[in-house]
C-alpha cells in the first residue's frame, strides 16, 4: 500500500466532509424563520436590541460567504454550535452520545457479518438443500421487516414472556457505581436485544451475498485442485474458498455502514439506547437544529472513516491491488 | 426447444413473463400484493368508517367485539379502520418515492455512463457525496425543514435514495454503449439523446426494473420509519404512525402495533418476492444461484 494512495484517500475524505459542512450550512439557512428570532425565542423572547446582539454574535449580519467562512472556521476548531435546548455545546452533547452508538453499530456489524457469512457458507455447500432454502427465505424476510417493528416485537416477547434480557436503556441504575467488570457485563446484557435487532436486517443480506459469492468461487479450478489433493472439506470452505469469496462481502460491509447508522437511529429510539441517533430524533422533535446538524456531521464523518477503512482493508485482502495507486 | 426454433422466436418480454408465471414465490407475491392494494383502494374510496373515531373501549382485544375484528388501540379507535385507510398513504408515498428515486438515478447514471470523462467524474463525486449522508437522518432533516406533507416526504425519500440506482444505471450504460447495435445506431446518424433513451436504456431495462421493484420496498419501509418517528404527515393515518402512536402501550396490548407491522412486512415481502421473480425471469442463466 503506497503512502500516496493513503494520502489521496484522506484528502478525498476531507473534501467529502467539507461538502457535508456546506450542506449543513445551506440546511441551517433553509430552516424556517430568522435564526436570530429562533435563538431569541429559545432564550425566552427578546427585543430588537437583543436580536441585533444575537445577529452580531453569530455573524448573521455579514454576507453569506463570510458566514460560511465563519461556520467552517468554528467547525475546524471543534465548535459545532450551541444546542438551543440543552444550552450546551453540540460537540459536548454528541461526545457523550457517540460511544453508545459506536458500540451498538459495531456489535451489530460484527454479529451480522459473522452469523451471515457462516450461514451463507453452509448454504453454499448444498445450493439446492433445505438450509439454502431457509437462508433465502430468512434473507427476504429480514429485508422486508421494518427494523423498529422487530424491536418492538422483541420487547413484547422478552419483557413479558421470557424476561431474560433487559429491554430498555444501556445500564441498570442499581449497577451504576459497580466495578468496571460488573458494569461491562451489565452493558453487554443490555446490548443483546438492540444489537440483534439491528443485525437481523443485514445478517440476511450477508448470508445471501456470501452464498452467491461462495457458489462462484466453489466452481473454480483451484478448489477442484484442493479437493483433488485431499484437503478436508471445512478447510476448503473456510480457508480456500471463503478467502476469495470475502471481497464482495467486504465491499458491501463498507457500503452498508451508512444504512447501519440509519437503522441504529430507529433501534436506539425503540430501546431507549442513549446514543447519537436518539439524540438526533429528540432534537428534531424540539426543532433543535444545531444539534441535529451536528449529529448529521458526525454520522457522515463515521461513514467517511468506515469507507476509508474498507478501502484499506480491501487492499490488504486482495494482493492484486497492493501495487496500484 | 427444437420445435420452437422452427416457429417465430418468442419475444424476450414474453419469455420473461412465461418464466415469471412459473415462479411460485413470485406469483404468491403478486397475489398477496394484489389483495393488499385492493383492500387499500377499497379502504380509501369506499370504507365508511373513520380511523380517528373512538368507537369502543381502549385496548379491546381482537375478536372480542365482532364488529371490531382486530381490536381497538389505546384511545379505543378501530384498528381495522386504521389498517385499510392507512395503507393508501403508505403505498402512495412508497410508489411516488420510488418513482422519484428511479428518475433521478436513471438520468444521472445514464449521463455519467454515456458521456464518461469529466461528466462522469463530476456526477460520480456527487453520488459518493450523497452516499456518505446517513439516509434516514438526512430525510428526517429535510422533512422537518419543509413541512411534512405526503409530497415532501416522497421527495425527501427520493432525494436520499437515488445513488444506488445511479450507480447501477451507469454500469449498465457503460456496458451496453460498447455493443455493436449502438455503433450501428450511431452509423445511421442517431443523435446522442436518441441513442441514450431509445437504444441503450431500453436494453438496460431488465436490471433497472428489478431495482425499481426493490426500491419500492425500501421506500415503503422508509415512509413507515418516518411516520413511526412521528415525522410523517400528521393529518393522514398510516401504518407507521399507528405503530408509533401505540408504542408506549406495547406491554398492555400487543395488537395495536402487531397488525400494522404485519401489513408493512407483508407488503414489502411480496414486493421483494416479485422483484426476485423478475430477476430470475430476466436472467434465466442465473437461476441456479
Written overview of the protein:
The complex is a heterodimer of chains A (325) and B (289). Helices cover 77% and strands 0% of the residues of chain A. With 325 residues, chain A is mainly alpha-helical. Chain A folds into 2 domains: 3-76, no CATH class; 91-321, MetI-like (MetI-like fold, Orthogonal Bundle), CATH 1.10.3720. Chain B has 289 residues and is an all-alpha fold. Chain B has 13 helices and no strands. In chain B, helix 4 (79-115) runs antiparallel to helix 5, helix 7 crosses helix 11 (205-228) and helix 12 runs antiparallel to helix 13. The radius of gyration of chain B is 23 Å and the shape is globular. The model of chain B has no long low-confidence stretch (mean pLDDT 85). Classes of the chains: A mainly alpha (325), B mainly alpha (289).
Describe the secondary-structure layout:
The complex is a heterodimer of chains A (about 325) and B (about 290).
Chain A: H1 3-30, H2 35-42, H3 48-58, H4 64-76, H5 90-125, H6 130-144, H7 147-161, H8 180-218, H9 221-228, H10 233-271, H11 276-285, H12 289-317
Helix pairs in contact in A: 1-4, 1-12, 2-3, 5-6, 5-8, 5-10, 5-12, 6-8, 7-8, 7-10, 8-10, 9-10, 10-11, 10-12, 11-12
Chain B: H1 2-6, H2 12-22, H3 24-45, H4 79-115, H5 117-132, H6 135-145, H7 150-161, H8 163-176, H9 180-187, H10 192-203, H11 205-228, H12 239-245, H13 255-282
Q: Shape of chain B, please?
A: globular
Cα-to-Cα separation, first versus last residue of chain A: 8 Å
User: Over the alpha carbons, how many angstroms does the gyration radius of chain A reach?
Assistant: 24 Å
Helix content of chain A: over 70%
Instruction: Give the mean pLDDT of chain A.
Output: 82
CATH fold label of the largest domain in chain A: MetI-like fold
Amino acid at each position: 500500500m503506497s503512502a500516496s494512495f493513503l494520502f489521496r484517500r484522506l484528502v478525498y475524505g476531507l473534501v467529502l466532509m467539507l461538502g457535508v459542512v456546506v450542506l449543513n450550512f445551506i440546511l441551517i439557512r433553509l430552516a424556517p424563520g430568522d435564526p436570530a428570532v429562533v435563538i431569541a425565542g429559545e432564550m425566552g423572547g427578546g427585543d430588537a436590541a437583543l436580536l441585533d446582539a444575537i445577529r452580531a454574535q453569530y455573524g448573521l449580519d455579514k454576507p453569506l460567504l463570510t458566514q460560511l467562512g465563519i461556520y467552517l472556521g468554528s467547525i475546524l476548531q471543534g465548535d459545532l454550535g450551541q444546542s438551543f435546548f440543552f444550552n450546551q455545546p453540540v460537540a459536548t452533547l454528541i461526545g457523550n452520545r457517540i460511544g453508545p452508538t459506536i458500540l451498538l453499530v459495531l456489535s451489530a456489524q460484527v454479529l451480522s457479518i459473522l452469523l451471515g457469512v457462516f450461514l451463507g457458507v453452509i448454504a453454499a455447500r448444498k445450493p439446492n438443500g433445505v438450509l439454502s432454502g431457509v437462508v433465502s427465505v430468512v434473507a427476504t424476510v429480514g429485508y422486508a421487516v421494518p427494523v423498529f417493528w422487530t424491536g418492538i416485537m422483541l420487547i413484547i416477547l422478552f419483557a413479558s414472556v421470557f424476561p431474560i434480557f433487559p429491554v430498555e436503556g444501556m445500564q441498570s441504575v442499581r449497577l451504576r457505581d459497580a466495578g468496571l467488570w460488573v458494569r461491562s457485563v451489565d452493558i453487554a446484557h443490555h446490548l443483546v436485544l438492540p444489537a440483534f435487532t439491528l443485525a437481523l436486517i443485514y445478517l440476511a443480506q450477508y448470508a445471501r451475498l456470501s452464498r452467491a459469492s461462495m457458489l462462484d468461487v466453489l466452481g473454480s479450478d483451484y478448489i477442484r485442485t484442493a479437493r483433488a489433493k485431499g484437503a478436508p472439506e471445512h478447510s476448503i470452505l473456510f480457508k480456500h474458498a471463503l478467502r476469495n469469496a470475502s471481497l464482495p462481502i467486504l465491499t458491501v460491509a463498507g457500503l452498508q455502514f451508512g444504512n447501519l447508522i440509519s437503522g441504529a437511529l430507529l433501534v436506539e429510539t425503540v430501546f431507549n439506547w442513549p446514543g447519537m441517533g436518539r439524540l438526533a430524533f429528540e432534537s428534531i422533535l424540539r426543532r433543535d437544529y444545531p444539534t441535529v446538524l451536528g449529529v448529521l456531521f458526525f454520522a457522515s464523518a463515521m461513514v467517511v472513516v468506515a469507507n476509508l477503512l474498507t478501502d484499506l482493508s480491501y487492499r490488504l485482502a486482495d494482493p492484486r491491488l497492493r501495487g496500484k495507486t | 426447444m427444437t420445435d420452437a426454433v422452427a416457429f417465430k422466436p418468442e419475444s424476450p418480454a414474453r419469455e420473461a413473463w412465461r418464466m415469471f408465471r412459473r415462479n411460485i414465490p413470485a406469483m404468491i407475491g403478486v397475489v398477496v400484493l394484489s389483495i393488499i392494494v385492493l383492500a387499500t383502494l377499497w379502504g380509501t374510496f369506499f370504507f365508511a368508517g373513520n380511523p380517528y373515531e373512538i368507537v369502543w373501549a381502549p385496548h379491546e382485544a381482537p375478536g372480542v367485539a365482532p364488529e371490531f375484528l382486530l381490536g381497538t388501540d389505546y384511545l379505543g379507535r378501530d384498528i381495522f379502520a386504521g389498517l385499510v385507510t392507512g395503507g393508501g398513504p403508505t403505498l402512495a408515498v412508497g410508489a411516488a418515492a420510488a418513482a422519484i428515486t428511479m428518475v433521478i438515478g436513471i438520468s444521472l447514471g445514464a449521463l455519467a455512463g454515456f458521456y464518461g470523462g469529466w461528466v462522469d467524474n463530476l456526477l460520480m463525486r456527487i453520488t459518493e457525496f450523497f452516499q456518505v449522508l446517513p439516509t434516514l437522518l438526512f430525510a428526517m432533516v429535510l422533512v422537518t425543514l419543509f413541512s411534512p406533507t405526503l409530497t415532501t416526504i416522497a421527495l425527501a425519500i427520493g432525494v436520499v435514495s437515488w445513488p444506488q440506482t445511479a450507480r447501477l444505471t451507469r454500469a449498465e450504460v457503460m456496458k451496453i454503449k460498447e455493443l455493436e447495435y449502438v455503433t450501428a445506431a450511431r452509423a445511421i446518424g442517431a443523435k446522442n439523446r436518441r441513442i441514450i433513451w431509445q437504444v441503450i436504456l431500453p436494453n438496460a431495462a431488465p436490471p433497472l426494473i428489478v431495482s425499481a421493484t426493490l426500491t419500492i420496498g425500501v421506500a415503503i419501509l422508509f415512509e413507515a420509519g418516518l411516520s413511526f418517528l412521528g415525522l410523517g404527515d400528521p393529518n393522514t393515518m398510516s401504518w407507521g404512525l399507528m405503530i408509533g402512536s401505540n408504542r408506549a402501550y406495547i406491554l398492555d396490548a400487543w395488537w395495536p402495533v402487531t397488525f400494522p407491522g404485519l401489513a408493512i412486512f407483508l407488503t414489502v415481502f411480496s414486493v421483494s418476492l416479485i422483484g426476485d421473480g423478475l430477476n430470475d425471469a430476466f436472467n434465466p442463466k442465473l437461476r441456479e444461484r
